[in-house]
Design a protein that fits this description.
Blueprint lengths: L1 H7 L7 H21 L3 H5 L8 H4 L10 H9 L5 H21 L3 H16 L8 H15 L9 H25 L7 H7 L17 H16 L1 H4 L3 H22 L2 H18 L11
Helix pairs in contact: 2-6, 2-8, 2-14, 6-7, 7-8, 8-14, 9-11, 9-14, 10-11, 13-14
């Protein structure tokens, strides 16, 4: 019992990991938002979108608030949709900069989380893994105290570390359940997606099926075994580095730059949060 208590209540020598996480996520959010701005109206407006609002909103329950609903609500008070969209953009970016500064971290993260969820629920056809991990990141920044003397920071740090481990374990476990990752088919399909082959032509890998199989199985095992190696000082740096290399490959081959970037941030945050601790075996905790 003492081991378990000490595991969840380790002494906090510094909060560099939290500062890194807060600043990195803030910068990520700003850059991600900036990348969407040229198409913002096409994705989130009521009448000017590529898809009709009625089509985009068909799977959204009435109680879920999104940007088109806000636009329509404010329009009933005579506020033009262009003003609403502009105001949303300004407030969103302003909150991201406030969060980056660390000023009222928890409150700024909470408001930004609410706006980010509103945005992600405004077009579910556009949202993907990067948006989900952004929401989760802001959730942690809402909860984790910024004061090093806070008694609540250590358990929440552990929750984040466990979250990273669980995410990778089940990602790898899910891959190994089917046959596609055992025979290289998933890798072959991935590198031949239209958005993946527009920059790099690596179709020559089709001549080396054993290489495709090795990449597929290697990725699955790297994720599956993540929780068993990142808690040991001797293997932690190697395993996290290998995962980061995998995400760099995903970024440049599949053009999933933002998803890879936020996963690299999560891995580096785990690394920095674990740097000043001793090795652990989860079996003996």
């Amino acid at each position: 019992m003492n081991k378990l208590y000490n595991f969840f209540n380790t002494e906090q020598k510094n909060l560099f990991w939290l500062k890194f996480f807060r600043i990195s996520i803030s910068i990520f959010i700003i850059i991600h938002f900036a990348a969407v701005l040229p198409d913002f109206n096409n994705l989130y407006s009521v009448n000017d979108g590529v898809l009709s609002y009625n089509v985009v909103d068909v799977y959204i329950p009435q109680y879920i608030i999104n940007l088109p609903k806000i636009i329509l609500y404010l329009k009933s008070f005579g506020i033009d949709s262009a003003i609403t969209i502009l105001g949303f953009k300004i407030i969103f970016v302003l909150l991201a900069f406030i969060l980056m500064s660390g000023y009222y971290q928890n409150f700024a993260a909470l408001l930004l989380l609410l706006m980010q969820i509103i945005l992600s629920k405004s077009n579910i056809y556009f949202s993907y893994g990067a948006d989900f991990f952004t929401s989760m990141s802001l959730f942690y920044l809402t909860l984790i105290p910024s004061n090093i003397n806070s008694v609540g920071i250590s358990p929440l740090k552990r929750l984040f570390q466990f979250h990273v481990c669980i995410a990778y374990f089940f990602a790898g476990f899910d891959k190994l359940l089917g046959i596609n990752w055992w025979n290289g088919e998933s890798i072959w399909k991935a590198i031949n997606l239209p958005f993946a082959t527009s920059t790099y032509d690596i179709s020559f890998l089709g001549n080396y099926p054993i290489l495709l199989t090795s990449i597929g199985l290697g990725s699955a095992l790297l994720e599956l075994l993540y929780p068993f190696f990142v808690w040991n000082k001797k293997t932690s740096n190697f395993w996290i580095s290998a995962i980061i290399v995998m995400h760099i490959g995903i970024a440049f081959i599949l053009n999933l730059y933002f998803f890879s970037a936020i996963m690299i941030i999560w891995n580096l945050t785990f690394k920095f949060s674990f740097n000043n601790e001793k090795s652990y075996s989860l079996v003996n905790v």
